[in-house]
Amino acid sequence: MRYKVPKFLERETKFFAFLTFKQLALVGGASLILLALYYILPKSIFFVSLFVIGGIVFSMVFVRVEGLSLSQLVLQFFGYLTGPKNYIWRRKKITSPIKLKEKKEVKKEEKEEESPLKVSPRGKLQKLSSKIEMGLR
Asked: Which residue has the higher pLDDT, 12 or 104?
């Protein structure tokens, strides 16, 4: 039996409990930084930095906006800021000029076959609408 397998899966494999490898690396890196700050800073400043760094890491790991994690959004934001912003439209090159010439010839032939229509400056419909507006019969 054949089974259809989707090409693009948006699931990352769980590495440790419910965390992916990227999430685990962010949490582990933040915990190492906080461990170093625990021995370097006084207790009051450490607890302030604990809440700040912990909040940032928690939001980077668990907050998702339109299917993207906050860390991916931050990377895309800085990529946009540093990337070029000149968008220039360029006409695509035509691959087969022979086909275009044939189409132009066909259009010319069609125009020659059509007889020119005689259009009066005021048609019957315009005369009727003006009579109705004026109230004439």
From this structure: 12
